[in-house]
Amino acid sequence: MTNKIFPNDDLIGVVLMGGKSSRMGRDKSLLEIEDQPLYKIAGQKLSIYCNQVFLSVNEQQKAENTYEYPFITDQYEAQGPIGAMLSCMHKLEKSILFLACDMPFISSDDIKTLIDKRDKNHICTSFFHPEKQIYEPLLSIWETASLPLLETYFANGNRSLQKFLGQQNIHKLNILNPENFKNINHYDEWKMISEQQKSKHI
After folding, report:
1. Which SS3 state, helix, strand or coil, does residue 109 take?
2. 71-73 vs 95-100, strand pairing mode
């Protein structure tokens, strides 16, 4: 049983995993590291801090798989992370801590820092790369007040979370360890990481 560091009744964890995985060539959420699928690794990290954890899935994943967690089906198919986030916000009606399944190096300390420094007076709390000048919305907290603003932005044909966050007064945190925010997009990347993890136990 997972030990909770501190449960958050007002914050629900969601694993983002419904992307097309086109560069990977297969459903990346099911790829395993140390015999655990990526979606479950992310879910376990969120469950330390959140009383409830959901998976954000697409229609194909819903039809083909069974999961240990409750899931929310993307209502805006093939619209990127913004569509998945909107689907979850509509369904849950609570503040949400999002974590993408393809960021396996995110540490418990990264998540704890995000929660500790959360500012509920801003619509979103996100890490920010000071050198690259980009946000990290795939590990971020979105308050309920963000929904109407994000809806309007989406309805006007916009899909870039980077652009949206740049337009809003959001609470951004400098990243201390950029290596933790690497994501896995290609099969060779996953294979190398998987082999490295196996070698540590030999």
Report:
1. helix
2. unpaired
- Residues of the chain predicted below pLDDT 70: 1-8, 20-25, 190, 194-202
| pTM summary value | 0.89
Name the residue type at position 86: L
| CA gap 57, 186 in Å, rounded | 20
Q: Read off the amino acid at residue 118.
A: R
pLDDT value of residue 19 = 72
Cβ neighbors of 179 (< 8 A, separation 6 or more) are 105
Q: Is 124:168 a contact under the CB 8 Å cutoff?
A: yes
pLDDT at position 44:
96
CB 79 within 8 A of CB 159: yes
